[in-house]
Design brief:
The complex is a heterotrimer of chains A (275), B (257) and C (653). Helices cover 48% and strands 1% of the residues of chain A. Chain A is built from 8 helices and 2 strands; from the N terminus they run αββααααααα. In chain A, helix 1 (36-58) packs across helix 3 (116-125) and helix 2 crosses helix 4 (156-176). Classes of the chains: A mainly alpha (275), B alpha+beta (257), C alpha/beta (653). At the B-C interface, helix 1, helix 2 and helix 3 of B face helix 3, helix 4, helix 10, helix 13 and helix 15 of C.
Chain lengths: 275, 257, 653
C-alpha cells in the first residue's frame, strides 16, 4: 500500500471500538493491576487536599516559636500571629478576615497544579484521561490542553517564579528554626531537622521543574556557546529525572512540617531539643 | 533447556470482524513472543498475518499489544510470563486493522509528511558543517526512534478519539518537530518557519496532556515526554504565552532597530 | 490479464534500503518520475541493522587518511578480487556522500572541533567510520527517508500531490522484471510485475529503467544476521531477466553474532565492540587471535598483547591488535577455536569489553549492544563477556555491473546497486564499506538510470510484452493451486513452504557454510535439486490478503536460485580466499585471482526462462578474466605485497 493513503476518517467512531479497529469488545486486555497507580495517586492527592484544606482554613495553630507552618509563610495579612523576626509582611492590611494561608497558598498550589508531573498524576488519577496506558478512557470527546481552561496550564513558568520566592521565604523560616523558644540563636530541635529536610525537598522539587529546566538552558539552540548554562541545565536535568519522586516527597514533607507545628502548637508534646 | 506448552490467544480477523483464537504452542528457553507467533505460522496457522523484519528490536516492525500492552513482539521475552499464564496478542488498537496482527499504519506516514523537513543553512556547503557534540546530543536521542509507532498507538489522544487524528501529529512526530527545532544548524527561522509556533498551531501539541504513556512504551527508552514534548511546550510558551519573552524581544528589536 | 493495473513511471527502484533510497533521490533530482517499491514498510529496510559506521576517508580524526589509503585497504580486504574501478570510485566519492547526508539533516557523532567523528574498524588503516553510536544504519535510512519526504513536500507545493514525482509503494513485492520481448535475448527492460502484500493485488509498473537495490541473500542460511527480506530477490530477478551474477561464492560470515539464546542466534554484535577495545578470548582465557594472523598481514598487526593494547591510545607507533583483522580471518579463527574444543558453553567464544572499559563508557559508546544483550540474552556486557560466533552476514557476489554506471551486463535498462551488485568488495567486504557502497553506487545507479530513461524519446520506450505479464501472474498464483498438482489429495497443501525454507537454510548452513568441502557442496546441489522439485508443490492455504505463507512460497524460488549460484560457484573455485574457504584447497592461489565466476540462468532454448524440469540445473557457470588494474593504482602498493596476489605474468607486464 502506498504511503499516499490518507488515514480513513470515521467521525462518530468511538476509539478502540471504532469501525476500522480490530474487533475486540474489551476496553483493555491488561492483566496486571494497572488501576493501582491511578487509584493510589488519586488517594494520595485527595488525602493532601483534605488535610491542606482543613489546615488552610483553620487559621489557628500555625505558629509555635520558633517554627512557622509553611502553609502560613509568608503571612501577608494583619490578622497573622506575630512571629518575632518571622515572615510577617502585612501587605494586605486589616481588611482581610479569612485565614492568611489562603493568600499565599495560591502560589505553591498553582505551581503544583500546573506542574507537568502533577498534571499527569491528576489527569490519570482523577480524570481518567487516560486511566492507564492502553486502557480506554471513558470520555466521548477530548481536546486536551488546547482550550480554556486547560490552556492556562501554559502559565506554569509564572508559578515557578513565584515558587522561587516562596521557597526563599521558607528557607528564611528554616534559618529561623535554628533558634530556641526564646529566640536565642544556635539551637536545634527535631523541628529544625524537619524544616531542613522539608526545605531541601522543596528546593529540589522547585529546581527540578520542567520550566526551570527550560529557562536555565533548555531553550538554547547551542549549548556550546553557553557553557555555564549548559552545565546548569545538566544539573537541573538530573534533578528533573526525579521530578515525580520529588513532587511526592516535598508534598509529604510540607504537610509533615505543618503537622509538626500543629502538634507543638496544640501542646501534644514539646519539641525535642538537640542542643 | 526446558520446553513447555504455552497458552496463547491471538486475534485473527480483518476489517469486517474477528476475534481471539486459542492456541497451545511449544515454547523453548530464551524465546520471545515473535518466535511463538512464527511457530504458530509454521505449524498451525500458515496464513497468520504478522509484520516483522529484523527480529532484533532495531526496525520497529513487529509492534503489537501483548496482554494489553503495546510492545515489540521481538523484544518481549517469554520468560517474563508465568508458564501457566495465557498470553494474549492483538494488533495495535489505535490503527485500522488490515488482517490478524497487521494494522494500517498509514496515519503515521501521512503525519510524517506534514512536518517540514530539515532546512540546510544557505551559507554552508557540504563538508563545512561544524557542530559540537553537546549541541547534537538532544536531537540524537530522538533520532534513536525506530518508528515502531507504539507511542502513536498508546497515545489516548488518537487511540480513544479517532476524530483527533486530523489535528494531532502524535508523540512521534511532535518529537520530530522538537528534533528539528533543536538541530544546531536547522535554518527554518531564516526561511520564516517557526517550528515552535507550528508545533502548537499545525501539529496539535496542545492535545498532549503529558500523561507519559508514549515514554512508557518506547522500546528505545527515549524520554519522549520529558525531553521532547515538554521542552516543545515550553518553547511554544516562549512564543505565545510569555509576555516577558515578548517584552524582551520588543526591547531588543527597538534597540537594534 | 487486462484487469492488472498498470502505472507508467520513468525509473522504478526495487528496494528501499540505503542504495534504493539514494538511487531514488538521485533519479528524482535528475527530473525523472521515480517509483520506489519495497517489501517492508518505508524506513524498515535491513540497512537499519548496520551498526558500525560509514567508511569515508575524510581524515577528520587522522589527517593521514585519503582516498588512496581507503582504496588500498579495500583491495587488501577483498584479496584483490575487487573490481578495481569500483573500489576506486567508492574510495574517491565516499566522503562527498557522507557530507551530503549532513545537508539532509543527519547528525553524526562529532570530533572536539565539531567535524564528523570517525572510528576504527577491522581492515581500515585509519579511523575512518563516520558513525552515530552503534546505530549508524538507522541514521542513514532515516536521513534518506526524510530526504525523500522533503522532495515529496516540494512536489506537493509545486504539483499539489506528494506522490507526483516520487512515490513509495511500501509492502509490495516485485516477482519479475518485465521486458519488451520475452523471446529475445538482450531485450530491453520494460517494467516490473508486482503484488501488494496487504491485498494480494497484482500490478505492473511500466518503466524503461529499473534499479535493483534489494540487498542480500542471508535468509538462505540458518544462522544469519539478516532479516526476512534478504531472500535474494534482486539477484534472482536479474538472473531471470538474463543478467549474470558475479562472485557468488563469496559469502561473508561476520565473526561475531550472538550464539545464545537459540532464538536470537545470528543477531549481530557490532565490530565496533572490537574497534573500541573489546577482545576475543577462548575458554582458557587466551586472546587467541594472535595465533591466527596470516602471512599476508604479519607486518601490519601487533605481535603481543601489550603492543595491541597500546595501539588504542597511540596508533602511530604501534600496530593494531589482531582482533581487528578483516572479518573472514576472524570468523575462521573463531570457527577453529570452537572446533578445537576451546569454545564457550554455547558454542562460541568470549568477546569481552567488561574488563577493558568502565561501565559508563560501554553504555555510552555501545548503547544498542548493551540494550540488545540486556533485553535478549539477559547479559550485562558491562559486567560479563558476551558469547559470540560467526553468522552469515553479507554476500559479496551480486549482479555483474558496469563499474561507472551500475548498469547490469547484457540487459539494457537494468541497474543494480548496493549488496545486490557484485564486484565492489571482491572476496571479502570490510566493515563500514557497505554503507558507503550503498551511497556511492546508489547515487550512480539512480543517475545513470535517469540518464538512460531520459534519453528515450516518448515513442521509443519499450512496451511490456503481454506474454510476460501473463506468465508472471500465473507463476505468482501457482502456490494456491499446488494441492491440485496430481499428488495424493489430502486437503492440505502438498509441501509446507516453511518446512522447505528450514531445510534449505539447514543445508546451506551445513554444506556451503563457512568452511566448504567438495563432497558436501555436491551433496548440497543434490539437496537443492530435491528442494526445487518439492518447491513446485509448495502450496498455501487461505487467500491473497496479507498471506505470509504465500509470500514465502514466492520467495523460495529466489532463495533456491541464489543458493544454487553460491553452491556451484563455490564448488568451482578451488582455492580459499576471503569469504570462500575450502578445507580441501586451503591456500589462496594467485591464478584464481584472475578468474571471475559468472552465474547465468541455465536456459534450454536460449531465452531466459526457468527450465521446465525442476530437477535440472538452473544455473550455469562461466569463467571470465579479471580486468587489469590501472597502473597508477597498482603503484599504491609495494611490489612485495602485490606479489602475494598477482601472478608473475601480471607483475611483469
Amino acid at each position: 500500500m502506498a504511503t499516499g493513503t490518507e488515514p480513513t476518517s470515521t467521525t462518530g467512531a468511538s476509539g478502540v471500538h471504532g469501525p476500522t479497529r480490530a474487533a475486540i469488545p474489551a476496553r483493555h486486555l491488561r492483566t496486571e493491576r494497572w488501576w493501582l497507580y491511578p487509584a493510589s495517586t488519586a488517594a494520595g492527592l485527595l488525602a493532601f487536599v483534605v488535610y491542606s484544606t482543613w489546615r488552610a482554613f483553620a487559621n489557628a495553630d500555625y505558629y509555635h516559636a520558633p517554627y512557622v507552618s509553611p502553609f502560613y509563610s509568608p503571612c501577608l495579612a494583619e490578622n497573622c500571629e506575630t512571629m518575632r523576626a518571622g515572615p510577617n509582611w502585612e501587605l494586605f492590611g486589616g481588611w482581610w478576615g479569612l485565614s492568611p494561608a489562603l493568600l499565599i497558598l495560591i502560589f505553591p498550589l498553582g505551581f503544583r497544579l500546573t506542574c507537568y508531573y502533577y498534571r499527569k498524576a491528576y489527569y490519570r488519577g482523577f480524570w481518567a484521561s487516560p486511566p492507564a496506558c492502553a486502557v480506554a478512557e471513558p470520555h466521548k470527546s477530548y481536546s486536551g490542553e488546547t482550550r480554556f481552561p486547560l490552556i492556562l496550564q501554559n502559565i506554569h513558568r509564572y508559578f515557578f517564579y513565584a515558587a522561587l520566592l516562596v521557597a526563599g521565604v521558607l528557607t528564611y523560616d528554616t534559618v529561623l528554626a535554628f533558634r530556641d523558644e526564646s529566640y536565642a540563636w544556635g539551637h536545634m530541635g527535631l523541628g529544625s531537622l524537619i524544616f531542613l529536610v522539608n526545605i531541601a525537598l522543596i528546593w529540589a522539587y522547585t529546581l527540578s521543574c520542567h520550566s526551570c529546566r527550560h529557562i536555565v538552558g533548555g531553550r538554547l539552540k547551542h549549548f556550546s556557546k553557553h557553557p555555564v548554562r549548559y552545565r546548569m541545565w545538566g544539573w537541573v536535568s538530573r534533578l528533573n529525572a526525579r521530578h515525580a519522586v520529588l513532587a511526592w516527597a516535598s508534598l509529604i514533607s510540607v504537610a509533615a512540617a505543618d503537622f509538626y507545628v500543629y502538634l507543638l502548637s496544640v501542646g501534644a508534646f514539646d519539641d525535642p531539643r538537640f542542643f | 533447556m526446558s520446553s513447555y506448552d504455552a497458552h496463547f490467544r491471538v486475534w485473527r480477523g480483518d476489517a469486517t470482524g474477528g476475534g481471539l483464537g486459542d492456541f497451545t504452542v511449544e515454547v523453548n528457553e530464551g524465546e520471545v513472543v515473535l518466535d511463538i507467533i512464527h511457530r504458530l505460522q509454521a505449524t498451525q496457522a500458515p496464513d497468520l498475518a504478522v509484520r516483522w523484519n529484523c527480529k532484533a528490536g532495531k526496525c520497529g516492525s513487529c509492534s503489537a499489544e501483548i496482554n494489553g500492552r503495546p510492545r515489540l513482539m521481538c523484544m518481549t521475552r517469554m520468560s517474563v510470563f508465568d508458564r501457566a499464564e495465557t498470553v494474549t496478542v492483538t494488533p495495535m488498537r489505535a490503527f485500522p486493522v488490515v488482517r490478524d496482527l497487521v494494522t494500517d499504519v498509514s496515519f503515521n506516514y501521512a503525519k510524517a509528511r506534514e512536518v517540514p523537513a530539515f532546512i540546510p543553512p544557505a551559507d554552508l556547503k557540504p563538508g563545512e558543517y561544524r557542530m559540537q557534540q553537546e549541541d547534537v546530543g538532544r536531537a540524537q536521542e530522538f533520532r534513536k526512534c525506530i518508528e515502531c509507532f507504539l507511542c502513536q498507538d498508546t497515545c489516548h489522544v488518537v487511540r480513544d478519539h479517532e476524530e483527533n487524528k486530523e489535528a494531532f501529529a502524535g508523540p512521534r512526530f511532535l518529537m520530530r518537530v522538537a528534533e528539528l527545532d533543536m538541530h544546531p544548524l536547522d535554518a527554518a527561522a531564516d526561511e520564516g518557519l517557526d517550528r515552535k509556533r507550528a508545533a502548537q498551531e499545525e501539529h496539535g501539541l496542545g492535545y498532549c496532556n503529558i500523561t507519559k504513556c508514549c515514554t512508557e512504551v518506547c522500546p528505545e527508552h527515549i524520554r519522549i515526554t520529558d525531553n521532547a514534548l515538554i521542552p516543545l511546550k515550553e518553547r511554544a510558551v516562549d512564543r505565545k504565552y510569555d509576555p516577558l519573552v515578548w517584552l524582551g524581544k520588543t526591547i531588543r528589536r527597538r534597540r537594534s532597530g | 490479464m487486462t484487469q492488472v493495473e498498470r502505472q507508467a513511471w520513468d525509473v522504478v527502484v526495487v528496494g528501499a534500503g540505503g542504495a534504493g533510497l539514494r538511487a531514488a533521490i538521485e533519479a528524482r533530482e535528475q527530473g525523472m518520475r521515480t517509483a520506489v517499491i519495497c517489501k517492508s514498510l518505508f524506513g524498515k529496510a535491513h540497512t537499519v541493522m548496520a551498526e558500525g559506521g560509514i567508511a569515508a576517508s575524510m581524515g577528520n580524526v587522522n589527517e593521514g587518511d585519503n582516498w588512496k589509503v581507503h582504496f588500498r585497504d579495500t583491495m587488501r580486504g577483498g584479496k584483490f578480487l575487487n573490481h578495481w574501478r569500483m573500489a576506486e570510485l567508492h574510495a574517491r566519492e565516499a566522503p562527498d556522500r557522507v557530507w551530503e547526508l549532513e545537508t539532509w539533516g543527519a547528525l553524526f557523532d562529532r570530533t572536539p572541533d565539531g567535524r564528523i567523528s570517525q572510528r576504527n574498524f577491522g581492515g581500515h588503516e585509519y579511523p575512518r567510520l563516520a558513525h552515530v553510536g552503534d546505530r549508524t544504519g538507522l541514521e542513514l535510512i532515516r536521513t534518506l527517508q526524510q530526504k525523500i519526504v522533503s522532495l515529496q513536500q516540494e512536489d506537493e507545493r509545486e504539483h499539489g500531490a506528494y506522490d507526483a514525482r516520487l512515490k513509495v509503494f511500501q509492502e509490495c513485492t516485485v516477482t519479475r522484471i518485465l521486458k519488451e520481448d520475452s523471446l529475445k535475448e538482450g531485450g530491453r527492460v520494460a517494467g516490473t510485475f508486482c503484488y501488494e502484500r496487504e491485498s494480494g493485488r497484482f500490478f505492473v509498473l511500466e518503466a524503461p529503467a529499473v534499479v535493483l537495490a534489494t540487498g542480500g541473500i542471508g535468509k538462505s542460511f540458518k544462522v544469519t544476521s539478516n532479516s526476512w527480506e534478504y531472500t535474494g530477490d534482486g539477484h534472482a530477478l536479474a538472473l531471470l531477466a538474463g543478467a549474470p551474477l558475479v562472485n557468488m561464492e563469496f559469502v561473508q560470515f561476520h565473526p561475531t553474532g550472538m550464539v545464545w539464546p537459540p532464538s536470537v542466534k545470528g543477531i549481530l554484535v557490532t565490530e565496533s565492540v572490537r574497534g573500541d577495545g573489546g577482545v576475543l578470548r577462548n575458554s582458557e582465557g587466551k586472546r587467541f587471535m594472535f595465533d591466527y594472523v596470516p602471512d599476508v598481514f604479519k607486518e601490519k598487526y601487533a605481535q603481543s598483547e601489550d603492543e595491541g593494547d597500546r595501539w588504542y591510545e597511540d596508533p602511530d607507533s604501534n600496530r593494531r591488535p589482531p582482533e581487528l583483522l578483516p572479518r573472514d580471518e576472524v570468523a575462521r579463527a573463531i570457527n577453529a577455536e570452537v572446533k578445537a574444543g576451546r569454545g564457550s558453553p554455547h558454542g562460541g567464544v568470549f568477546l569481552d569489553v567488561s574488563t577493558r572499559m568502565p561501565a559508563e563508557v560501554i553504555r555510552r559508546r555501545l548503547p544498542s549492544m548493551h540494550h540488545q544483550f540486556k533485553e535478549l540474552a539477559d547479559v550485562d556486557i558491562t559486567a560479563e563477556a558476551m558469547e559470540v560466533g560467526p553468522t552469515c552476514h553479507y554476500v559479496m557476489g551480486g549482479v555483474d555491473v558496469d563499474p561507472d554506471t551500475a548498469a547490469a551486463t547484457g540487459v539494457p535498462g537494468l541497474f543494480a546497486a548496493g549488496e545486490v551488485a557484485g564486484g565492489m568488495h571482491g572476496s571479502n567486504r570490510l566493515g563500514g564499506n557497505s554503507l558507503s557502497d550503498l551511497l556511492v553506487f546508489g547515487r550512480r545507479a539512480g543517475m545513470y538510470a535517469a540518464e538512460y530513461a531520459a534519453a528515450l524519446a516518448a515513442g521509443e520506450r519499450p512496451v511490456v510484452d503481454p506474454r510476460e505479464t501473463g506468465a508472471a501472474e500465473a507463476e505468482a498464483l501457482r502456490p494456491f493451486s499446488a494441492e491440485d498438482s496430481g499428488l495424493p489429495h489430502t486437503g492440505r497443501p502438498a509441501e509446507n513452504p516453511y518446512t522447505l525454507h528450514q531445510e534449505l537454510q539447514q543445508a546451506m548452513n551445513d554444506l556451503v557454510g563457512i568452511i566448504r568441502r567438495q563432497p558436501e557442496m555436491e551433496q548440497a546441489l543434490e539437496k537443492l535439486a530435491d528442494l526445487r522439485v518439492r518447491a513446485r508443490r509448495a502450496g498455501v492455504e487461505g487467500h491473497r490478503q496479507y498471506n505470509p505463507g504465500w509470500h514465502l512460497s514466492l520467495d523460495l524460488r529466489n532463495m533456491l536460485l541464489v543458493s544454487e549460484c553460491v553452491a556451484r560457484a563455490a564448488l568451482e573455485r578451488k582455492e580459499s580466499r576471503g569469504g570462500h574457504t575450502r578445507d580441501d584447497h586451503p591456500e589462496m592461489d594467485r591464478r584464481w585471482r584472475r578468474v571471475n565466476l559468472l552465474c547465468r540462468l541455465a536456459t534450454t532454448d536460449g531465452r531466459p526462462e526457468l527450465p521446465e524440469d525442476p530437477a535440472l540445473a538452473h544455473i550455469r557457470l562461466e569463467r571470465r578474466e579479471m580486468p587489469a588494474i590501472r597502473d597508477d593504482l597498482l603503484e599504491l602498493f609495494e611490489r612485495d605485497e602485490l606479489a602475494k596476489y598477482l601472478t608473475d605474468e601480471e607483475l611483469s607486464s
